[in-house]
């Protein structure tokens, strides 16, 4: 299979090329040149084998095709259980059992396993640059730690990520460099963009990125939805519907693609925080990217969802059909707090602020008479957002073992000014 750009003015690429490049050279996003026919999928397999079957057509003809099964086994070595919630026919798909306790571990680990193989015969190490406001950097650092031929430089805004997030970013060492930047997340992102466009720097130190537009993160995220939906169908004969908390639309788009490939998923509803560009669009407005606003669900603080271009491609640019296919609802900070406190009090459930937006959207669907079996995607463990969650539930949140292990290691990040030459120097050192 070949991959083309959503903007149609870049040459077609193989999967390996698309994964190595991240963004297409015309600034568009890579998409398959044709969507594969629906797959024969078997319930009961583990996530790794479901993934290998589902992803096979995307890897067909690529140099990585023979390694797909090994990549899947390496990436998907932790579970994503579907558990009942305290309300009938409601479930939670727990995506936070990986090393950094957020769903991004799945995509980051698949990308790292793929990139290590793509780069196997290259002499120069590849440097992955990541600007992060928290979750992405940690997942990428954990996934690329000690991968041969690969180095990660993570930039985060000093003092603007939680202490636990900062610790996670700085605790790896070896081939992972954490830089705390005297500036904002936007400053970090601008520095990374400038480096990626610096041909002179690239000639000395090949660079790539690992953000959520990468096909190597997007495609594997279909796997946990397929695994859950197939098992649910086999056990109950019923179709699973989903609510997905959404920022850049990476996780939600994976569910949408999985359904397009024949995975038995019903409705897919999107939940956002106060960044309401998607709710406004799905309510019939124009697509109007905006500056992001800070919320309690900070990993979803996105004013211009980067994968929206792929969603439009999937619907051939037909916004009327796209609006008819999904709903998107905004959940503000006061409601996030209310949901976390009330679900704990009434049902003993502890949700992270991102998951809480999806729980609220499901509650509203039920209140409007919505039927069927639904699951909310739980995108992070609440222990990652303890400063929000603990005051609301009045007790400490137990830290999962993988996260506790990271937090028990010493951590170190080098300070740098929000200055391009400072970054350049670090990349070359
Ligand atoms: C990244 C993230 C999201 C948003 O995912 P997208 O793929 O950007 O839509 C939601 N919740 C958590 C905890 C995250 O880390």
UniProtKB/TrEMBL annotation:
Cofactor(s) essential for the protein: pyridoxal 5'-phosphate
SUPFAM superfamilies documented for this protein: Tryptophan synthase beta subunit-like PLP-dependent enzymes
InterPro entries, alphabetized: Ser/Thr_deHydtase_PyrdxlP-BS (IPR000634), Thr_synth_N (IPR029144), Thr_synth_N_sf (IPR037158), Thr_synthase-like (IPR004450), TrpB-like_PALP (IPR001926), TrpB-like_PALP_sf (IPR036052)
Residues annotated as domain Threonine synthase N-terminal: 3-76
Keywords: Amino-acid biosynthesis, Lyase, Pyridoxal phosphate, Threonine biosynthesis
Class of this enzyme: lyase
Domain Tryptophan synthase beta chain-like PALP: 94-374
EC number: 4.2.3.1
Pfam families xrefs: PALP, Thr_synth_N
Catalytic reaction annotation: O-phospho-L-homoserine + H2O = L-threonine + phosphate
Cleavable signal peptide: none
Pathway: Amino-acid biosynthesis; L-threonine biosynthesis; L-threonine from L-aspartate: step 5/5
Family as reported in the entry's similarity comment: Belongs to the threonine synthase family.
Protein name, entry field: Threonine synthase
Native species: Pseudoxanthomonas mexicana
């Amino acid at each position: 299979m070949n991959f083309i750009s959503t903007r149609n003015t870049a040459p077609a690429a193989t999967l390996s090329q698309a994964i190595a490049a991240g963004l297409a050279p015309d600034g568009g996003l890579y998409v398959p040149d044709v969507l594969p026919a629906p797959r024969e999928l078997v319930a009961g397999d583990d996530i790794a084998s479901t993934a290998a079957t589902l992803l096979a057509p995307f890897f067909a003809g690529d140099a990585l095709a023979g390694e797909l099964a090994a990549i899947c086994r390496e990436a998907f070595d932790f579970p994503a259980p579907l558990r009942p919630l305290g309300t009938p026919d409601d479930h939670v798909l727990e995506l936070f059992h990986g090393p950094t306790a957020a769903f991004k571990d799945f995509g980051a680990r698949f990308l790292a396993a793929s990139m290590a193989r793509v780069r196997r015969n290259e002499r120069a190490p590849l440097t992955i640059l990541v600007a992060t406001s928290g979750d992405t950097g940690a997942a990428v650092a954990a996934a690329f730690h000690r991968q041969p031929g690969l180095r990660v430089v993570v930039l985060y805004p000093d003092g603007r990520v939680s202490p636990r997030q900062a610790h996670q970013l700085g605790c790896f060492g070896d081939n992972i460099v954490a830089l705390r930047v005297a500036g904002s997340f936007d400053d970090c992102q601008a520095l990374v963009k400038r480096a990626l466009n610096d041909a002179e720097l690239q000639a000395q130190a090949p660079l790539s990125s690992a953000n959520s537009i990468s096909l190597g993160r997007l495609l594997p995220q279909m796997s946990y939805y397929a695994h859950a939906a197939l098992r649910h169908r086999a056990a109950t004969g019923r179709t699973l519907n989903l609510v997905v908390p959404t920022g850049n639309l990476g996780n939600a788009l994976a569910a949408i693609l999985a359904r397009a490939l024949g995975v038995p998923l019903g409705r897919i509803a999107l939940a956002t925080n106060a960044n309401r560009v998607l709710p406004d669009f799905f309510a019939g407005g124009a697509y109007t990217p905006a500056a992001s606003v800070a919320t309690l669900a900070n990993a979803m603080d996105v004013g211009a969802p980067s994968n929206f271009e792929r969603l439009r491609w999937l619907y051939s640019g037909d916004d009327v059909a796209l609006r008819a296919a999904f709903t998107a609802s905004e959940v503000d900070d006061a409601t996030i707090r209310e949901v976390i406190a009330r679900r704990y009090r009434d049902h003993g459930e502890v949700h992270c602020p991102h998951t809480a937006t999806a729980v609220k959207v499901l509650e509203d669907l039920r209140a409007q008479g919505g039927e069927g079996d639904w699951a909310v995607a739980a995108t992070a463990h609440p222990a990652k957002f303890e400063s929000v969650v603990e005051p609301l539930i009045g007790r400490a949140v137990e830290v999962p073992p993988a996260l506790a292990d990271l937090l028990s290691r010493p951590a170190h990040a080098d300070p740098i000014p929000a200055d391009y030459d400072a970054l350049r120097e670090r990349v070359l050192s």
